[in-house]
Amino acid sequence: MKMKILTLFMLCAIASAHKITQLKVPLYADPRRAAELSCHFQMDDQKLHSVKWYRDMHEIFRYNPSQKPPIRLFNVTGIMVQGGECQVDSCMVRVMPPPVATRAAYSCEISTEGPKFQIARQTKHMTVVAMPDKDPTIIGAPKLVKPGEQILLNCTSDYSLPPSDINWYIDNDIQKPEPWHRTELSAPQPGGLRASWRVLRVSVPPAESGALRVRCEAILMVEPPVVRDTSAIITLYSRTQLSKYVSNRGNNMENSVNVLACVVLWTLKELSKVSL
Ligand SMILES: *[C@@H]1O[C@H](CO)[C@@H](O)[C@H](O)[C@H]1NC(C)=O
Ligand SMILES: *[C@@H]1O[C@H](CO)[C@@H](O)[C@H](O)[C@H]1NC(C)=O
C-alpha cells in the first residue's frame, strides 16, 4: 500500500515536471484585427512531443517539432487562423475572431514524448468586442419650444460590437420606449460593427416653463457594461417672454389713448376759433 502511494506520488512529480508557465489570451478581441495568443511552457528534463491550441473543442494549431512542416494550422468555422510561431519554450498563434460578439475558450496543450504522452493544459476566455469611440449624438433638439408643441428627437450611437442599447431620459426620468420607437440598427460595417438609433417623441405640456434636459445613453452590454451619453437643454417659451408681449400691447393702447386726447384737444381748439 505504502509502495503504491509512493509510486503515485512519484508519477505526479514527473507529470508536474513539464508545465505551462504562462498563457496569454486577451480578455477582449477587436473583430477588425487579429489577436495574438501565446503559450509559454517549461519542459525540465522531458522531451516535447507537441503543442496544440484549441478554440472550444476544435484544434486550430499544432506544433510537432519532429514533423515536416512542424506547424499546421486548422481553420475552424467562424475563425481564421492567420499564422503561428514556436520558440523552444513558447508557441504563439494569430487568430482573426469572427465578426460576432462571442466568448470562446482558448486552450493550450503540451504533450511529452511517448510512450507516456503526458499532457498539461490551460484555458482562458476571449470575448469579441468593439468599443464605441464617440458619444452618441442627438438630432432634432430645438433650442426653444412653445408649450403644447411636439418634437421628435433622434439619438444615434457610434458603431460598436455588440451594438449599443439606447435609453432616453427627460430630467433624469427614464422614458419607456413606445412599441414603434425601439432601438434600430444600422447595416453592419467591416468586423460586424453597427450603429443604433432610437427616436423619442416629446409633448411639451401646455402650462410649462423653464427648460427640459434630455439625455440619451448608449449602453454596450458587456461585463461590466460600457456607457456613453449626451444631453441637450431645450428651453420653453417662458412667462416673462409672454408677459412682455402683453405689456407691449398695453403700451400701444396707451399711445392710442394719447392720440385720441390730442385729436379731442385739437378739435376743441378749432371749435373755439370758429366760435370767436
Ligand atoms: C483559412 O481560411 C482562409 C480563408 O477562409 C484562408 O485564406 C487561409 O489560407 C486558411 N488557412 C488555412 C491554414 O487553411
Ligand atoms: C435617426 O438617425 C439615423 C442616423 O443617425 C437615421 O439613419 C434614421 O433614419 C433616423 N431616424 C429617424 C426616424 O429620423
Key features of this structure:
binds 2-acetamido-2-deoxy-beta-D-glucopyranose; alpha+beta; 19 strands; 2 domains; 43% strand; rod-shaped; Immunoglobulin-like; 276 residues; 5-stranded mixed β-sheet
Task: Describe the model.
The chain contains 2 helices and 19 strands. With 276 residues, the chain is an alpha+beta fold. The chain has 2 domains: 127 residues, Immunoglobulin-like, CATH 2.60.40; 139 residues, Immunoglobulin-like (Sandwich). The strands form 4 sheets. Strands 2-10-9-4-5-6 form a 6-stranded mixed β-sheet, with no helix packed on it. Strands 12-19-18-14-15 form a 5-stranded mixed β-sheet, with no helix packed on it. A 4-stranded antiparallel β-sheet has the order 1-3-8-7, with no helix packed on it. Strand 4 and strand 5 form a beta hairpin. The radius of gyration is 38 Å and the shape is rod-shaped. Bound molecules: 2-acetamido-2-deoxy-beta-D-glucopyranose (2 copies).
